[in-house]
Design a protein that fits this description.
The chain contains four helices and 20 strands. With 285 residues, it is mainly beta. The model has no long low-confidence stretch (mean pLDDT 92). This is Biotin-dependent carboxyltransferase family protein.
């Protein structure tokens, strides 16, 4: 088990998300940056479906109540074990009563703590992902006890770590395909969409990212239609909203673009005043 000494800015338990409940208005949720979460689980030879701890902007302090093995991937918040720096993207053995802390932000917005065997929190609607009104709590809190699965005794220590693609954090490019209402835009609006650089506003979270710049339009409003993570909406005021993992299931704004899965992952590592640029791809993986 893990005791939360300090929850930090915003830390949640997440897995791949819950699917099949959109008709009940339940969002998908799940890890914001699936690339980094998958990397952490893979290094520990965990199934990619295992739940991890998603830590936003660091500030988290955790005490391990039993011996286990961990891996931290994603953003670099200067992790330390018992006040000694540890590597990202590497197997780390922790002993009972060891304390893991996160300090200075070096790069990125969200890091992922994977536990060998996985987090063993309750499964609700086929997922362990925390979300308000679905799970008992929508984030972890000071004093919480996080259950973890039993770790096999076998373990080999390694001081090596896996190098990640730097462009995952540095690239401004978000690949996308056209959305259902893309052709409602004029030629000029389409050109502006793919030539301008946009800035992330202070309104960004697990539900969506709003951009500062305006794309003037007189597009008609929609009847409420389906949306999903990665949908880019255009509001009557010209604001662009990039929906993310905890987004609503339906919306009434024109859906002009759809981000690729890779772009959703990249976006999750960006924050206020970071810039992005859309690029159109006809075929996305």
């Amino acid at each position: 088990m893990i005791k939360v000494l300090k929850a930090g800015f915003y830390s949640t338990i997440q897995d791949k998300g819950r699917f099949g409940f959109a008709s009940f208005g339940v969002p998908f949720s799940g890890v914001m940056d699936a690339y980094s979460a998958d990397l952490a689980n893979s290094i520990l030879n965990n199934p990619l479906t295992n739940a991890v701890l998603e830590i936003t902007f660091g500030g988290c302090i955790l005490k391990f109540l039993n011996t286990t093995t961990i891996c931290i991937s994603g953003a670099d918040f200067s992790p330390k074990l018992n006040d000694k720096p540890i590597l990202l993207n590497s197997k780390i053995r922790v002993q009972k009563d060891d304390v893991l802390s996160f300090g200075k932000i070096n790069i990125g917005v969200r890091c992922y703590l994977a536990i060998s065997g996985g987090i063993d929190s309750p499964i609700i609607l086929n997922s362990r992902s925390q979300f308000k009104y679905v799970t008992f709590s929508f984030k972890i809190n000071n004093g919480d006890i996080i259950p973890i699965k039993q770790q096999p005794k076998e373990f080999f220590s390694s001081k090596s770590s896996i190098k990640i693609h730097k462009e995952h954090f540095s690239s401004e490019i978000l690949e996308c395909k056209v959305g259902p209402e893309f052709d409602w835009l004029s030629t000029t609006q389409k050109e502006k969409l793919f030539t301008d650089i946009f800035t992330i506003s202070k309104n960004n979270n697990r539900m969506g990212y709003q951009l500062n710049e305006i794309l003037n339009n007189k597009l008609p409003q929609l009847l409420t239609s389906s949306v999903l993570p990665g949908t880019v909406q255009l509001t009557p005021s010209g604001k662009l909203i990039l929906l993310t993992r905890d987004c609503q299931i339906t919306g009434g704004y024109p859906r002009i673009l759809q981000l690729s899965e890779n772009s959703i992952n990249r976006l999750s590592q960006k924050t206020t005043n970071n810039v992005i640029k859309f690029t159109l791809k006809s075929h996305l993986s």
